[in-house]
Amino acid sequence: MKEVFKILIVDDEKEHRETYRMLLESRGFIIGEAKSGDEALNIMESEYYPIVLCDVIMPGLSGIEVLKKIKSDYESVEVIMVTGYGGVETAVEAMKIGAFGYFIKSHNPEELLIEIEKAKKLLNLQKKNNMISTKKNKERYLYQSKNPKMKELLNTLEDIGQSSANVLLLGESGVGKEIIAQRLHDISKRSNMPFIAINCQYYSTNLLESELFGHEKGSFTGANEKRIGRFEEANGGTIFLDEIGEISQEIQVKFLRVLENRKIERMGSNKQIEVDFRLICATNKNLLHEIQSGNFREDLFYRINTIILEIPPLRERKEDILDMINFFIDNYKMEFKKDITKIENETLEYLLNYSYPGNIRELKNIIERMFVLCKDGVLKMEGMESSTAKNFDSHKHFDILDFNLARANFEKEYLINALKLNDNNITKTAEVIGLSRRQLFNKINEYNLREFMS
Ligand SMILES: Nc1ncnc2c1ncn2[C@@H]1O[C@H](COP(=O)(O)OP(=O)(O)OP(=O)(O)O)[C@@H](O)[C@H]1O
Q: Which of 449, 418, 439, 453 is nearest to 2 (CA)?
């Protein structure tokens, strides 16, 4: 699904507003305009814009005053100041009081796009860390289920919360493995100590080693400073290693040693440091297959799997979809400050029956996108140029095929469309549709999709 990002342009000169609008709309952003600081603040009260592009010098409220007000009322909004050469000093000043960056009007517009992309990245990261920044008393996640298997799993969590046993979480991408790990930490006696989560597949062997174990200054080229590793940071708390099936043999050996001795050595040092953490690992790989094919150590497998919890995919817990939808709607209502009165019947019916290859992550993205595009208080799929929406339009007209064949056809078409919408960029597509990069890679090979990607 294509991501939608909204930007509010605040500039008293129509010509400037129009130039930025054209530039940014051509890159897929949704644009709002305000002629003055006051108008911008009014708009912000009823509509959420994660990024504001604000002229420094304007009649009425100045850019700096607008910035101050936005930063005090909407902590998560990033403001980029726009200025001529005459206002550079003020723009630099603005950065000291919270502006994300600034752009000089006569410079190459590419510079502005780079600044916006940087702000977008930061916002996505913050969002990942704290899904709903504006929520106050609400629970952050839904920890209830009507599905027998999931219910049992949630009960088990409560039972094992107090122990320090190693836990292995299994399940497809997007089913909520990290959320379950966080829950396990939150209900444990370690809850006021750190919860450290690392996705092992994002690192090369060397980087992962330094990330986990830390390093001394000068221990390898580029190690300019001493760095504390994640095992040390997690001391007293919980460490969550996602995609554990991706770690190299080399790290597996070192990791096994840590689990046996509960001591680590930073890279470039032979001093042993004691560490005490609860270990939770997750994977969507079949580790038994990985052991058979020699990719994963059997002794490590038995160390990490004291308790195994398998989280079912969303399509196998359809009885929970309605509660999930309502949960996300309630949270996004607060985040986007939009008055949503209802969800269109046809859309709801579709959402309740859809198969969610990207699981809860995909459902969450669909609801978020409907919120962004919603103008009349009624959530609907209409206007979403995603393959999900196309599927929505056509889902009533299909021939009855063998299930696996139908699923393969669907997956293939879905992926071709998703890739096309994201300029065949694998990393971006994976992020948008809620698969890991590796999973998407495997699917591309499985369905020979390269021929559609040129
Ligand atoms: N119980 C829940 N309540 C609310 N949101 C949830 C819940 N479970 C998962 N989510 C949301 O779904 C998304 C995916 O969750 P999470 O990252 O935990 O999945 P995962 O199984 O670890 O995925 P991956 O294997 O790709 O890392 C996140 O945005 C998360 O906030």
A: 418
